[in-house]
Amino acid sequence: MPEVLHQQLRQMIRLSEAEIESFIRLFTIRHLKKGENLLIPGEICRHLFFIRSGCIRYYYTSDNGEEHTGQFFFENGWYTDFESYLTGKPGTQTIEAIEASVIMQLAKTDIDRLYDENPLFERFGRLMIEQGFLAVKRRNASFLNESPEERYLELMRTRPKVVERVALHHIASYLGIKPESLSRIRKRLQMQDSGS
Amino acid sequence: MPEVLHQQLRQMIRLSEAEIESFIRLFTIRHLKKGENLLIPGEICRHLFFIRSGCIRYYYTSDNGEEHTGQFFFENGWYTDFESYLTGKPGTQTIEAIEASVIMQLAKTDIDRLYDENPLFERFGRLMIEQGFLAVKRRNASFLNESPEERYLELMRTRPKVVERVALHHIASYLGIKPESLSRIRKRLQMQDSGS
DNA sequence: CGGTCTCTTGACGGAGTTCAAAGCTAGTGG
DNA sequence: CCACTAGCTTTGAACTCCGTCAAGAGACCG
Q: What angle do CA A20, A111, A124 make, to 5 degrees?
């Protein structure tokens, strides 16, 4: 059993070991190859995902076929398309494994049942969405306050994993620019570095 | 007593009229003149706000003194700086009344007490943050997927109130551009309109 | 070893920014 | 009630950065 998930749950909810065990047993495992999708537009997102290993991203596809990635998640991270998950409507995003990944998924139906059975799980649900909210808000502020170059520097500073493990054209799409532009930003920064 | 607030609460939580009355009594009223602030950077946000009349915006101030407005809220809308409210840490945003406004505020201490007293209020808290989450997510997607001009058109289409009531330089700062650029976008659109 | 995908580079065009200045508008005080 | 002023909006010219199109170099996989 995945020890990290165990620990995270212990920190989030005050349950006995036995209760946590039975909670974890509700998760099912999925193995994804690099490039496989966890969710595609039009599908309703009925699960909460815990990334045991690997890396996923979610992205929107615009009319002209461009991909705009919203976020990357690595091992021990949580994700779900809350827009679809909460509303029950078909989603508009794609969730893609960009590395071979092992995903533990928990069905919304099980979560909702847990809410009813034990109010302590309400806290779990609230923490999930609070955490998601704060992350989305930070991302918002970065679009609002920073230029593409600043966003890239910030990304390197605060989330080196992304720059190390994710393809540059995916990073570009995360920053809201084209791969060519990211390439030029990187060159610009190199020259500044060596020049100073 | 504000009838709209009454109605909204009735829709959100299944409480008796008496319970709702006593809930509403927890709110206190604040009158703000145009330009007055509800919250400034460095302060901890300890309240949830319901806008009874008027209009507020929240914005971040960057190092060079530029304001970047995150969102506008009108009468019958809810807002709080969740980042500060949830974490209990000093916030980084300013909440400003951009019209003379009447605000009903509810203290976090009261809300937390209600959570304990009656689990039905958990639902209120969850709806608040879910609603905020979805809004921020939409805004995020608009930055990711749309150009400034498209964002402006979208704003006119979906939230005409903003374009009608808010100063153009505030709208520009909401769109992530300079007032001069918004002025040119508007001119461009006018010419296209009359030309077609 | 060939092909595909990724990243880089160059030239050009376009949209937003900057700096500066000139109308407008609305709120204030006389 | 009008005049004045401060803030808002528009306009112009020069500049910057990103997007586009095109091509080439490098890396990885079968």
A: 60
Interface check for A133 against chain B (CB to CB < 8 A): the answer is yes
Same domain, A183 and A102: no
Q: Is the pTM of this model over 0.90?
A: yes
Digits of tens for pLDDT over chain B (196 positions)? 568 999 999 988 888 899 999 999 999 999 999 999 999 999 999 999 999 999 999 999 998 889 999 999 999 999 999 999 999 999 999 999 999 999 999 999 999 999 888 878 888 888 899 899 999 999 999 999 999 999 999 999 999 999 999 999 999 999 999 999 999 999 999 887 766 5
CA dihedral B93, B107, B129, A79 (to 10 degrees): 80
Nucleic strand D under 7 Å from the C-beta of B185 = no
Subunit contact A126:B130, Cβ cutoff 8 A: no
Overall domain count for chain B: 2
**In which domain, by residue range, is B48 found?**
3-145
* Residue A126: closest C-alpha in chain B: B126
* Same domain flag for B157 and B78: no
- Rounded CA-CA distance A73/A75 in Å is 7
Among A159, A179, A169, A1, CA closest to A74:
A159
Question: Taking CB atoms and an 8 Å cutoff, what residues of chain A touch B83?
Answer: 134, 137
- Residue A27 structure tokens: 């998760």
Q: Quick one: closest CA in A to B125, which residue?
A: A126
Asked if the Cβ of residue B185 lies within 7 A of any atom of strand C, the reply is yes
Residues 6+ apart with CB under 8 A from A157: none
- Say yes or no: B64 and B135 in one domain: yes
- In chain A, count H helices and then E strands: 9, 8
Whether residue A99 contacts residue A89, with contact meaning beta carbons closer than 8 Å, is answered with: no
